[in-house]
Design brief:
Hypothetical Protein Ta0175, Chain: A, domain 2; eight-stranded mixed beta sheet; four-stranded antiparallel beta sheet; Rossmann fold; alpha/beta
C-alpha cells in the first residue's frame, strides 16, 4: 500500500455548498475499510464542521481552523497549535466596522474586502498575525500556522510520514498541505494556481472529484508522480 492516508479539504472539495453527499460518504467509508486513514483539513471552526457534517467519526484527525486546532474523534481530544487571538484585536476590528468577525479558538475570520483593514489593525497593534485567503474568506492566524503545519502535527501524532499521504483541495489555503504530501490532487473546480501545483486534477468537481480520486487510490491506479 503506497499511500496510507487521504487528507481532504472540506468546503469546495468534499462538500458542495457545505454538504457532503451520501455517495461521497460511502466512498470515505471504503477508504477506512481498506485500512487507510482519513484526515479532514478545514478552515472552519471545529464546532461548525461538526454541525455541518455528521460523519466526522470517519476521520482519524480533524485539522480545523486552517491548521490551528487538531481534534481526534476516537478519543474526543483536542490540541491547540496556536495562541488565542488578543481581545484588543477583535475589539479593534469590530470598532472599524469589520463584519462579520468570526472568532475561533485561534483563528479570526472575515470576508473580502476587509483584509486591508485587518492588516492595518495588525500593524497598529504590533501583533504577530498573518492573513491567509480562502477564495472570498480572509483568515487571520499566528505566523507559521497554516494547513500544512497542522497536517504535519497530525501526522506526527499518528506516526505517519508525509510521503504516505494523498491530499486533495480546491483553494489558496490548500497549497501548504498539498505541497508536503506524497501525492497532491486538485478537484476539477479548484483555482488554476492549485491545479498547476497538483500532481493530478480530477475531471469531476467537489465530492464527485474526491470519489474519482478514491477510486484511483483504492485500485492503485494513481498516475506516477513526476520527479
Amino acid at each position: 500500500m503506497r499511500y496510507l492516508v487521504l487528507a481532504s479539504d472540506y468546503d469546495g472539495t468534499l462538500a458542495r455548498h457545505g454538504k457532503v453527499s451520501e455517495q461521497t460518504i460511502e466512498a470515505l467509508e471504503r477508504v477506512v475499510a481498506s485500512g487507510r486513514k482519513l484526515l479532514l483539513v478545514t478552515g472552519r471552526r471545529l464546532q461548525d464542521v461538526q454541525r455541518a457534517f455528521s460523519r466526522t467519526d470517519l476521520f482519524s484527525c480533524i485539522v480545523a481552523e486552517d491548521g490551528a486546532v487538531l481534534y481526534f474523534p476516537a478519543s474526543s481530544t483536542e490540541k491547540l497549535l496556536g495562541e488565542a487571538p488578543p481581545e484588543r484585536f477583535i475589539q479593534a476590528l469590530q470598532e472599524r466596522g469589520v463584519e462579520p468577525v468570526v472568532v475561533g479558538r485561534v483563528i479570526v475570520a472575515t470576508l473580502h474586502p476587509y483584509e486591508t483593514t485587518v492588516l492595518e489593525v495588525i500593524r497598529e497593534l504590533g501583533i504577530e498575525r498573518q492573513i491567509i485567503f480562502n477564495k472570498g474568506n480572509v483568515m487571520v492566524l499566528p505566523s507559521g500556522v497554516n494547513k500544512g503545519s497542522g497536517v504535519a502535527a497530525a501526522l506526527q501524532e499518528l506516526e505517519i510520514e508525509p510521503h504516505q499521504v494523498v491530499s486533495v483541495g480546491d483553494a489558496e489555503n490548500d497549497h501548504s498541505f498539498l505541497a508536503q504530501s506524497g501525492f497532491a490532487v486538485a478537484v476539477g473546480n479548484a483555482l488554476p494556481a492549485l491545479k498547476e501545483q497538483a500532481d493530478y486534477v480530477t475531471k469531476a468537481e467537489n465530492g464527485e472529484g474526491v470519489r474519482e480520486l478514491i477510486e484511483l487510490l483504492l485500485t492503485d491506479n494513481l498516475p506516477k508522480k513526476e520527479v
